[in-house]
Amino acid sequence: MKNFENILKQNNQQHLLKYIEMADNNQKENLIKEIENIDFEQLNELYNISKRDKDKIIESCIIEHTSFVDKYKGDKQKLEEYKEKGEEIIKKGEYAVVTMAGGQGTRLGHDEPKGTFLLNVKPKPKYLFEILVDGIKRANEKYGIALNWYIMTSTENNDKTQEFFEEHEYFGYPKEKIKFFKQGNLPLISEDGKLLVDEKFNIKYAADGNGCIYKAMRKNGIIEDMKEKGIKWVFIGSVDNALLNMVDPILLGLTVSQNNMIGSKSVVKRSPEEPVGVFCKKNNKPAVIEYTELPTEMAKETDEDGELLFGESHIMCNLYNVEALDIISKNTLPYHSAHKKAAYMDENGNIIKVKKPNAYKYEAFIFDGFIFFDNISILRGRREEDFAPVKNAEGEDSPETAIKLYNDYWENK
Ligand code: UTP
Q1: pLDDT range class, residue 384, cuts 50, 70, 90
Q2: What b/e sequence results for 2-23 when a residue is b if at least 16 CB atoms lie within 10 Å of its CB, and e otherwise?
Q3: What residue's CA is closest to ligand 1, atom 20?
Q4: pLDDT, tens digit, 9 for 90 and up, residues 316-345
Q5: What CATH number has the domain bearing residue 212?
């Protein structure tokens, strides 16, 4: 028996033999290579995750609420001190920004990289990437610097993303200050534990989640590059927030003053039911608890002022000391499974487009990196200044709501 046949038999994936029979020589060679390179031990562990009972895991943890500083209601003098401290570091060139742009943006339904989505804002439509460039340029002007900008892409969207930047001449940003790096990916698995194949006879893969950014930064020499450049503090944000402020000296100054290695910006949850993850302490370590995991009574709990005890939403505005990135990147983050729709080719060569989720995708989450520290500094911002997410094609957190938030913010500036 050939090596790949053995592998398939041992791992209960013999259905792939039919694809090997159907494929032409080149495709066959590729597919066999792919099979021989798959880490089946990891894959089997991942498949088991999909079957695990989330409630049981969370029941075994002690979940407590966590403290934060309000950017607008906090002690004015202290906030001013944080600002000065943060600005000093930024002006010294010790600050850099990172954008996570490796996601698939399935909910938005835009077939291209999400950053290339054109948002019809005033006075003229802008691409999400362009909005980010504008924000960094404003900071550069204000502080007399040129920030290093790192952009994480995925195997799926890397070429298209880089071509887009070339085509738009980097929206006037100095090209030498931008570095792209790719995150990893993992195979998708069908509900009955089988690998899927696409129309080109390749195993179906998907990006391994934004939590894999730490590993990807290490693997691609990004942490090293930052250290060589004298960068000490790094902001990591998402690609799909039209009000993202990547350079907030108060968040930086607060984190430094509280002697923490990590910090994050939050906004208050709209209601106990809003489907967002919130900051908490999990077994006395900083963490984010997903809305699906937070028991309803806890989600509704309030303090003496009537504020939600678990009300600080994680909005993907995270700050790290470069040493913190180093620490997290040497650790392994857990994978979470998501039930997703994935088109595939069946064993007769037909392309099957599905209407319902049919496959498991495995992702690490960025906030699972917080657990390696004793504390995190949280700065509560304001939704109307900090958070205009473009997640869904319509309704809440859609282009429509983001455009409104963007226009309102800039009209009142
Ligand atoms: P989301 O978790 O909202 O995912 O990403 P998404 O891919 O944009 O959208 P859906 O869930 O498929 O509809 C939050 C941020 O994390 C990035 C995204 O690009 C976005 O900036 N991300 C997500 C990655 O960089 N890699 C991933 O594997 C997943």
Answers
A1: very high
A2: eebeebbeebebebbeebbebb
A3: 238
A4: 999 999 999 999 999 999 999 989 889 999
A5: 3.90.550.10
Q: Which atom of ligand 1 is nearest to the CA of 366?
A: 16
What is the 224 CA–ligand 1 centroid distance (Å)? 25
- Tell whether the torsion through CA atoms of 238, 243, 247 and 248 is positive or negative: negative
How many Å lie between the centroid of ligand 1 and the Cα of residue 240?
8
**298-307 residue pLDDT tens:** 999 999 999 9
pTM for the full predicted model: 0.95
Q: What is the pLDDT of residue 1?
A: 78
Output the residue whose Cα is nearest ligand 1's atom 23. Answer: 103
CA of 99 to the centre of ligand 1 (A): 11
Domain span including residue 380: 74-267+315-411
Does 94 map to a domain?
yes
Atom 3 of ligand 1 has which residue's CA nearest to it? 391
Q: Of all atoms in ligand 1, which is nearest to the CA of residue 206?
A: 28
- Measure 391 CA to ligand 1 centroid, in angstroms: 9
Number of independent structural domains in the chain: 1
What is the band of 165 on the pLDDT scale with cuts at 50, 70, 90? very high
- Tell me if 275 is assigned to some domain: no
Answer yes or no: is 305 within a domain.
Answer: no
The answer to the question of residue 64 being in a domain is no
Q: What is the pLDDT of residue 413?
A: 83
**Ligand 1 contacts CB of residue 215 (under 6 A):** no
Q: Residue 128 has which token pair?
A: 């999400």
Tell which one of 152, 210, 367 to mutate to probe ligand 1, the residue whose CB is within 8 A of the most ligand atoms.
Answer: 210
